[in-house]
Structure formats: C-alpha cells, structure tokens
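Q: Give me the 3D complex with manganese (II) ion.
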Amino acid sequence: MTRILVTNDDGIFSEGIKLLAEELGKIADVTVVAPDREQSASGHSLTLHRPLRLRKIREHWYSVDGTPTDCVNLAVLGLLKEEKPDLVVSGINFGLNLGDDVTYSGTVSAAFEGSLFNIPSVAFSLEVAEGFSFARAAEFARSFMDTVLAEPLPSDLILNVNLPAGDIQGVHFTRLGHRVYDQSLVEKVDPRGRKYYWIAGEPVWTPEEGTDHAAVSTGFASVTPLHLDLTDYRGLDAYGGLHQRLSDKLEGKAAP
Ligand code: MN
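A: Here is the predicted complex, encoded as structure tokens.
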C-alpha cells in the first residue's frame, strides 16, 4: 500500500490535518508528523540551533516542536527511514497559498522539502470564506490523490493545490498569480513607551486569466506544478551585458 507522510503548518491539532489524514487513510498507509503548534508563514525554515523533540500523540501521529520542514526531515531521516514515504501531502491549510505568497507558506515549503528528498509532494490549501468546509476539501483531496496515484509519479513532482470555499466546479492547471499587496506596517506604542510593529494588509490580486487566483476566485480547484529551481533562465541571457562589464572590471579592462 502507498505510504503517505502527512504534515502541515497549522499544527497537529488543526481540523484540516485531522480530516486530510482520515480521508487519505482510506487509500494509503498514513503517518502524521506535524508541528506541535501553529507555524503558518514559517516558510522553508529549518531549525539548526536547538534540539528537536518528537512526541507520539497516538498510533501513527507524531508532533514536533519545530517547523513543517523540520517535520519532513525528522520523518524521512528518522521515524520512517526504513520505510520511506512514497508521497508527502501537506495541509489542508486554513487559508489559500497563492502566487507570490508561496515562499512564505509553511504548507507549501513542506512539499518543497519532500521534493528535496526526491519524494513527490502535494500541498493543499483551502479558501476561508462563507461556506468553507474542511470535510469537503478533505474528500476532494482523497479523490484527487487517488487519481494522481493511478500512474507512477515523477520524483520531482510538486503540486500546489488551492481549493475554493464553496462547491468545486472543476480543476484548472494554473500558473502562480501576482499580488499587488496592499501590505502595510502598523506602528504602535507599548505601555512602556516603546514602539512595536505589526505587518498587516489584505492581499489584492492582479486579475489575470490562467493564474491560481483566477481559478479559485471562479470556484475551481487550482493545481500549480512547482519546482524549486529559482534560476531566472531568461536572465542568463538578458544580463549578458552586466556579466561583460563585471568581467572587464575584474580583469582591469574598465576604469574603476
Ligand atoms: Mn497555515
């Protein structure tokens, strides 16, 4: 039977991971290794400067006092090292992980980490709006994974799946959208007279067809294939002039 490692960034006691693990348990052997508390927006953070503890919650359920990336490492290199998982599934996140926001996301970063171990990985996130239901999202995730697993998977597969709050109209394969963040910094003064800050703001998205945001906002499940290679391949050509100037300068051909 397929072995699935389930993790998330909302913490092991979140409803999203509970229902996801239950549903995936109908089609696979599931082990849950997840943070012991919320780690949303922890990105791809790895804990290197303190020890980590793995705590058994119940059969096949373990919590870690670390990030989603820590969880994948402890699972793959430790707990499950004799029986490496065939798949990492992260989520279901409370809230969407779209476009420019994916590198903040602990949910998506757990999938990146699975991919670094050559394990196909899928992240699920759910829109939080009127009518949203983790139960419906988890059922969708099970049937989605059932379909995905019907054929052998490339080891570098990373799928970022975002689900709309309401009924799911269908599935769109999408590219990452762009946010025109109305990002703001709230500055206040604490009771001791010192300033403190909150990073705030509501994301506003550029309406572009074919993006993950466009799919979810029209009621479709969005599936974005991702990879971790952030190289700007166009830049390798486009910055040729800069390369030349830097080379000339280092070789003493240009005025300092
Ligand atoms: Mn989260």
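A quick observation: The longest helix spans residues 134-148.
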